[in-house]
Amino acid sequence: LLIDARSARQAGAIVRRANTLLRPVQNCTDGYGSGLGIAEITKLNREEFSQIVIAQLKPAPRWNASGVHTLNSTSRMEVIDYFA
Fold first, then answer.
1. What's the distance, CA 64 to chain centroid?
2. SS3 state of residue 38
3. Could you report the per-residue pLDDT of 15-66, keeping only the tens digit for each?
4. Measured in whole angstroms, how far is the alpha carbon of residue 8 from the centre of its chain?
5. Most CB atoms closer than 10 Å: which of 44, 50, 56, 68?
């Protein structure tokens, strides 16, 4: 169970990068989807889960957006979904 407005809400698929699991998370402290974070999963087993938010992204003024929703990637591209 994770209760934290900064990082509880999933914002994309978990990816593995160099033996590290990275979890995109929504930061909703300033409202729904007001920011996007990347959390490193530091513990994951049947009894325990922990993560550390290692990066944050807020909508840039030139985006003309009020929030960011998801971050997903493939081997060929990364996509950030934002809303106005």
1. 20
2. strand
3. 999 999 999 999 988 888 788 999 999 999 999 999 999 999 888 778 787 7
4. 9
5. 68
